Amino acid sequence: MAHALDRPLVPLTALAEAQKIPATFLEQILIELRQAGFLASTRGKYGGYSLARPAGEIMIGELVRHIDGPLAPIGCASVTAYERCSCPDEEHCGLRLIMMDVRNAISNVLDRYSLAHLAEVTLQHLRRDGLLPPVVELIRHLNLATRAKAAAARPVEPDFSI
Q1: Bigger pLDDT: 5 or 67?
Q2: Residue 121 maps to a domain
Q3: Going by C-beta distance under 8 Å and a sequence separation of 6 or more, which residues neighbour residue 58?
Q4: Is residue 16 in a domain?
Q5: Has residue 118 been placed in a domain?
Q6: Full-prediction pTM beyond 0.85?
Q7: CA–CA separation, 143 vs 146, rounded Å?
Q8: Cα–Cα distances in Å, from 51 out to 1, 13, 40, 75, 145?
């Protein structure tokens, strides 16, 4: 959502406050996400965290797998962390086959959506329900207006092509 508001960095304290999470707990999560290449950080008074890649390139499934591990409910149904079970005929085990369907269904949903999509859906629902603070909308509109003014102020070069 920081991107939607044109904020390149989000300070740890602001994020912790907004999400009602203890800053020390959140910091450990953000450090892990930075080490995994999801986030970048800038130190100092005006520092904070930002995405290391465009939000449209970070899939929710990728994040969930990193944070929670394999999507499969049991090890013998996992693609990324397969573990042989005690079943004597794993290939025909009904429980394993059902759990593979569960894994595939979860994977198909989570791998279809990006972080950008998640942020946009969240903002749409907040706006719809009137829960987005007016100051957030004001900042967003001011940022868009500033960009429009800057674009209008750029000199337009004549097009001499025929």
Answers
A1: 67
A2: no
A3: 38, 51, 114, 115, 116
A4: no
A5: no
A6: no
A7: 5
A8: 11, 17, 6, 31, 24
